């Protein structure tokens, strides 16, 4: 790797990570506004025009608040836990392909921090490490509510990583690769001349399993058992305040972004527009960089739709009971996921491939 390649790689990592972090204040504002709309109240409307500066005020509040550590905690793990939740969420971003290529310094640059041959395995493996932050935070707090939340989180993550993986197996069978970039490239064009050539039309059952499991993996309602306020006072982060609590909060929204990005890549064509190929767009626009901007905008729009869906469902559906949470996974999603793999294999054999 030359010095220029090293600089470009560093710039890509910084720009993409900083851009994704902006998801946090935007989603805080959107979540509050959607909640207010559903509950028939104004929502944030005091700080800045239309309340747009409310996330900035929240950030200043977290930065300026006192950050005491309760007595009888395991100080090291208590302090590390929020970062052990945030860091895996940030690392997953490295493998997500956001757009195809741009021209920078006379070189073709892929809009992806790292194009791994096994990027899907990397994403699932690194994403599963986030549970350690919740476990350490719950145990190290020396609080019974936090510990119950941590135990719930452990069983929930184990239960729903299996259907998530089974859904991903179906996608791997269809595309014949573990590379997320290759998956996106194979979803260009149309299917049967009518439908977009997207993964959801090859794996509709796999997508539904992945969608439901993603709610549980990100601890979002109706699967927020690790932090259910009505029962556990906030669960695993009961004893956290100031920037440590804000870090857990950031990790949740970063996980939403990465899960939404992963579903976009596997099932909704990534950066591809429906019914139009990249070659057709390039011929129309005459500029690779302009095409890249459109691809980035397309990807962001698709991810935004999924993130809005997370918010909408949070303020629409009630929370599951814990036994219902586990029964849904072990009794329904895992058997359906296994059946989906078998049926997909039979169909691919009969039809001679994808």
Q: Could you say which structural class the secondary elements and strand pairing correspond to?
A: mainly alpha
Number of strands: 4
The proportion of residues forming helix, as a percent range, comes to 55-70%
Question: How many structural domains?
Answer: 1
Mean pLDDT: 87
Q: Major beta sheet, specifics?
A: 2 strands, antiparallel
> With helices defined by DSSP (H or I, 4 residues minimum), what is the helix count?
14
Q: Calculate Rg over CA atoms.
A: 21 Å
- Strand order, sheet with most strands: 1-2
Quaternary structure classification = single chain
Q: What sequence of helices (H) and strands (E) makes up the elements?
A: HHHHEEHHHHEEHHHHHH
Kindly estimate the percentage of residues that lie in beta strands according to DSSP: under 5%
